[in-house]
């Protein structure tokens, strides 16, 4: 059992040590693969004889963040590779022609596009922007004419406040983020939109919005769609779809449809944030948003276990930011509609829409993960909705807790609080990282001083061999404490580790590979090793005094050491009572 414990601690130490370099390695590999794909495509453009077209790598195989995900369904009916080029009949098509046609969505037949239900996807939105980096001598025309590209007939082009280009079809009320300036692509989008609206004819009205997001995966093109219901603040599809197909098996405890209301509302607000064109937030959305921010601020000020997704200083700043736009609000036939349509350009305010939609998305998702409005609603950050494994009952845990001076139990409770129900609350996580970083910095300073003290003791004349071995043990423990502190500081100081989504993924990996109890042991080592180092130095100092000093000096120091031993024992008892009361 002890060998297994040591082996798992070694694996955890290697995982933490390789964490920053692993992130840098992944980013470098991703960049290298991107350059390789660009090089292969340039060779293919110069009539190179590749047997097959190189794969187009979009992103890693890791699942997207819980807040945004589009699920790519596997096609049950394989597509004939020859069908990728409609101008060539099956067996007579050359590999080069098939490869060239498969990467162009405008030349593919209707069966080559796989239309699937989807949700607003933040990962592909921010990951797919690429630039070939070519240099070109563009002539600037004379005069004052606009240099902006004109969209195809029936489409309107607009730029999101973040900078990406989006397109809107005025007749069909269709949004898309794919660049439709290529010949035939706009007509293909319109054709797919009409077909989807015909299938949902009994459910959609004339003002129903439709979003089509086209992505490439290998040699296939996927068109993910969803309809938008502004009255009920949710997304919908013309066919039934299961939760795991859209979001994956990541929502534990969701067994009723009523629990999905806030999840679909969070997706709705993501849609409003991604497509703010021709919108203006109503007065009600700012009133509701200010109410939620004010309540979260009061809850944060009066409770240490608040479920607020923001810290107190952030709430103060957000209350100053959330202000209704100037001018009259756009009216809607439905009072509950919070994002009204504003055809007048003077009433459009995409910046206010993005601000309100982003904050509303955060609050809606926070309600969903805490089972807001359900029988098992989580009202406190320290409440555990699911059965958790009690590590404190292990005999090995109790023995280690004693030898680690009861710090193991404290760090276990910290990890339980910050990762209750496998959910990380952002303000709590930031406080946890700050507290751990400060403690590790102090332990590093104390260990450095202790190491210098050990070296000074060894440099003193007349140190016997047994005392040297004791000081060597103290020095080794001090060095180990410094190394463990440096490794943990390197992990917690990484910019990505501050992000709750990244922290959730890392803690999940640690839980699967070695277990959270071993992470608590690692956090306990710097302080425990430092205390053991001080204890060994104390023993060496006592032996040096009582063996080589005069009898009078022994008596005086014996009385002093006895008093110090009593105080130290009392401190250990108080520490034990504190640890027991906090359990």
Q: What does this protein structure show overall?
A:
The chain has helices spanning 2-45, 95-102, 122-127, 185-199, 243-247, 261-274, 283-302, 312-321, 350-369, 395-403, 407-418, 426-459, 465-492, 500-513, 516-548, 551-581, and strands at residues 113-117, 155-159, 165-169, 174-176, 209-217, 220-229, 234-236, 279-281, 339-341. Strand 3 and strand 4 (174-176) form a beta hairpin. The radius of gyration is 32 Å and the shape is elongated. It starts with a helix and ends with a helix. The chain is α+β, with helices and mostly antiparallel strands. Strands 1, 2, 3, 4, 5, 6 and 7 form a seven-stranded mixed sheet that branches. The chain has a two-stranded antiparallel sheet with strand order 8-9. The protein contains 16 helices and nine strands. It has three domains: 58-128 and 150-233, no CATH class; 251-386, no CATH class; 391-548. Residues 122-137 have a biased composition (Basic and acidic residues). The chain crosses the membrane at residues 443-463, 469-493, 514-547, 553-579. Residues 51-143 are annotated as: Disordered. This is WW domain-containing protein. Residues 91-110 have a biased composition (Polar residues).
**Considering DSSP H and I runs of 4 or more, what fraction of the residues is helical?**
40-55%
Oligomer: single chain
Residue fraction in strands: 5-15%
Largest sheet geometry: 7 strands, mixed
Number of E-state strands: 9
Order of helices and strands: HHEHEEEHEEEHHEHHEHHHHHHHH
Identify low-pLDDT runs. 43-102
